[in-house]
Design goal:
The protein has 738 residues and is α/β, with parallel strands linked by helices. Helix content is 39%, strand content 15%. It contains 24 helices and 25 strands. The longest helix is centred in the N-terminal third of the chain and has 39 residues.
């Protein structure tokens, strides 16, 4: 009996200790209380193993005592209490241990159920904190600067104990997702219910014309930029309108795979001789019909060399003036000497010449000085198209006699550089400027956007020719380029991961995920993926991205750049990829397939150009529902509709704004005016904020962008008007009547 009493005292002490331990533990949640009960029960089991475990006096006081006759002993029946042994008898020690083990297993099950319920409790609390604009700790590195136990919730991916509560990865991820969705608002559905805009209906014109484009490059045979796209696509749209169109361009042999494209052209056997550079040069003409357009390629040995169109690794070719003087002379002869057969005959002299940039700039001057005074091309009209006024075709004035232009027309080409731009004090700065001669003698001047037509009349944008352009402003127009809707079609693009259109954006989401996987990024739908495609030079503004890279990488974004150019900018891309390996990728070079995948997969396209006559990348981007951010200059200002935060995000209203070309819709992108790092970064930050917080408005902007008519047919109608105006007016340069 003495042994029983001593055991009873020891048991009472242990049970009381476990009860006090359970009560002393702070209970921030049901899970913490369960862990305390589990610890108390474990201590009881350990006490029961060496001796009999009897109920404590305190425990028995809350129960009832019954004498059991026939058993020779007393049995205490205790009401169950959570976390404490519910019943103790004088039974065998093994049975007592089994009973405790069963209770422990039951407590484990309760603990598991409480863990599963904890996720919902945490999520609810985190949503309330997010709505109240409390700070969140995100990422694996947030643990170091956190203040645990002071109310800040940890929603990272690691394990954490806060006030004896264990946050599991699943629960933390769930809390983070719910909290972000509370701030982001309802997700925009991938299905919009918007019907894609039908292709334009081609109607024949009532006044068909014969039009001759002269260009140093034409897609797909030769290409370095947008000029080739214009001369490869616009003529095909004019043919659909009923015009007869010829494109004259050199027949390059550069040792590249593009040389094979000339195999479809046949010799017209219409060789002719042109006079320039104090000699007579024989040129041949090769003809190929493509989509109804007569593509004529000028064959001469000067176009057959290994390298690029205008230069090689050693720089620009020293004989470029000769090569393109020859092109202009040959282009003036082509409509007169090439018989296209099948009842078509020659184009004759009643044509409209379109001279693109300085490479074809001698055409208007030759028509006015060499042909029209002798009765040829009297009813011809010439239009000079400026794609980039920085390139003017200047050479020393001593080369004037090489151009094959009558000497009394020298003043049209004469140009003198300002003193600060001359080589030395004895340099008079006198040159022949072929683009100046084209502007002075052509019947009309055309640029590739209305905004650029205004900019080139200013000292900053005119590059020395602003005074002459101001004098001819009454015959200066601007027409924005279009794009090839078949080549740039998100439904049939062979380079992208999935097709999509304005009615269903699920394919664009797959394109984004595919690009993220290809670039090695974390595949996330909730992060804005930004892209840059272009030359790495001063004009395109990639140095602005370089200067703002630290601020950009502090945003929750991903950025991929594609391009080549200045070595210091190429090195920057390599450095940025190594420094911000989880957020930045750089591709030095150019790839047609990659440009399509970036255009389709990105959410935002960066175009921080210092000046942009038109720009095509922003048009491609909007065609694919990728919203552009651009500098408010030239064609970017004409083609990007500023985001309107007060607009109604209704998809149908977005479509109406695109059809009417109205500013009342949600917009198609963002524009910044100051060419500085802070202004550029603020514009990007605003776009990212809209992406995170208002998916519905973002989707409406995508719908407006994709519902625009960006086709060349729309541009062809405006070009046609310029041709008609040129025909109405008399020639700008007429022979003197003596």
């Amino acid at each position: 009996r003495g042994l029983r009493v001593s055991h009873l005292a020891r048991s009472r002490t242990r049970v009381t200790h476990s009860t006090q331990l359970r009560r002393s533990i702070a209970r921030p949640s049901r899970l913490a209380g369960t862990r305390a009960m589990y610890a108390a029960a474990t201590s009881c089991r350990a006490a029961a193993l060496p001796a009999r475990c009897l109920s404590s006096k305190k425990a028995s006081s809350s129960g009832s005592i019954h004498k059991m006759h026939g058993s020779g002993g007393v049995r205490r029946v205790v009401k169950p209490r959570r976390g404490v042994v519910a019943e103790s008898t004088d039974m065998d020690m093994d049975a007592q241990a089994d009973l405790i083990a069963q209770q422990i297993e039951e407590l484990k099950k309760q603990n598991a159920r409480l863990k599963s319920d904890l996720g919902g409790v945490i999520a609810e609390r985190e949503v309330k904190k997010k709505v109240n604009n409390l700070e969140f700790l995100e990422g694996k590195g947030a643990l170091e600067g956190s203040t645990l136990g002071l109310g800040n919730a940890y929603v990272g991916t690691g394990d954490l104990r806060e006030q004896f509560m264990e946050y599991e990865k699943v629960a933390a991820a769930k809390a983070k997702e719910l909290a972000e969705s509370a701030m982001r608002g309802p997700e925009a559905p991938v299905g919009t219910g918007v019907t894609p805009r039908p292709p334009p209906v081609f109607e024949k014109t009532e006044n068909p014309m014969s039009i001759v484009f002269v260009s140093s490059e034409v897609a797909p045979w030769s290409k370095t930029g947008g000029l080739a796209d214009v001369c490869g696509s616009l003529p095909r749209e004019l043919v659909k309108r009923g015009h007869r169109v010829m494109v004259v361009s050199p027949m390059y042999k550069l040792g590249k795979k593009e040389d094979e494209l000339y195999h479809g052209a046949f010799d017209t056997c219409s060789n002719t001789t042109v006079g320039c550079f104090d000699a007579a040069h024989e040129v041949g003409f090769f003809h190929q019909i493509y989509d109804g357009v007569d593509f004529v390629f000028v064959k001469h040995a000067c176009y057959e060399r290994i390298g690029g169109l205008y230069g090689d690794s050693y720089g620009v070719y020293g004989d470029n003036q000769f090569r393109f003087t020859l092109l202009s002379h040959a282009a003036c002869e082509a409509p007169l000497v090439i018989d296209f057969g099948e009842g078509k005959g020659t184009y004759g002299d009643e044509v409209v010449f379109v001279a693109n940039d300085w490479h074809a700039g001698l055409v208007p001057l030759l028509v006015a000085s060499k042909y029209r005074p002798y009765g040829t091309y009297n009813n011809c009209r010439t239009i000079t198209t400026i794609h980039n006024i920085m390139h003017q075709g200047t050479e020393p004035n001593t080369t004037f006699n090489n151009l094959g232009v009558p000497s009394d027309w020298y003043s049209c080409l004469e140009y003198q550089y300002p003193e600060e731009q001359r080589a030395h004090e004895l340099d008079l700065g006198l040159v022949v400027n072929i683009l100046k001669g084209a502007i002075a003698t052509s019947d009309r001047v055309l640029t590739v956007s209305e905004g650029y037509a205004q900019e080139i009349q200013t000292p900053l944008g005119g590059k020395g020719l602003e005074v002459m352009l101001q004098e001819r402003s009454h015959r200066l127009d601007g027409v924005v380029n279009g794009i090839d809707m078949d080549e740039w079609n998100p439904m049939t693009d062979p380079y992208t991961d999935a097709p999509f259109d304005v009615s269903d954006f699920s394919g664009k989401l797959e394109c984004k995920r595919g690009l993220q996987r290809e670039m090695g990024f974390e595949v996330r739908d909730d992060v804005p993926l930004m892209g840059f495609i272009g030359r790495l030079d001063w004009q395109k503004g990639p140095d602005l991205i370089r200067d703002a890279i630290h601020e950009l990488m502090n945003e929750d974004v991903q950025l991929v750049m594609l391009g080549s150019g200045l070595p210091e900018l190429e090195e920057f891309m390599q450095w940025a990829e190594g420094t911000y390996s989880e957020k930045f990728r750089g591709w030095v070079g150019f790839s047609v397939a990659m440009s399509h995948r970036i255009t389709a997969g990105c959410d935002i396209l960066l175009m921080p150009s210092r000046f942009e006559p038109c720009g095509l990348n922003q048009l491609y981007a909007m065609r694919y529902g990728t919203l552009p951010i651009g500098h408010a200059t030239g064609g970017l200002n004409d083609t990007i509709t500023r985001a309107n935060p007060y607009a109604d995000p209704d998809p149908q209203l977005a479509v109406a704004a695109a059809v009417d070309e109205s500013d009342l819709g949600p917009g198609t992108g963002w524009l910044f005016t100051g060419m500085d790092t802070r202004t550029f970064y603020n514009c990007v930050s605003n776009a990212c904020k809209l992406y995170h917080e208002n998916p519905e408005m973002w989707r409406a902007m995508q719908i407006q962008a994709m519902s625009q008519d960006l086709s060349w047919y729309n541009a062809a109608l405006k070009w046609e008007k310029v041709f008609e105006w040129a025909k109405i007016d008399p020639p700008h340069c007429e022979p003197a009547q003596w």
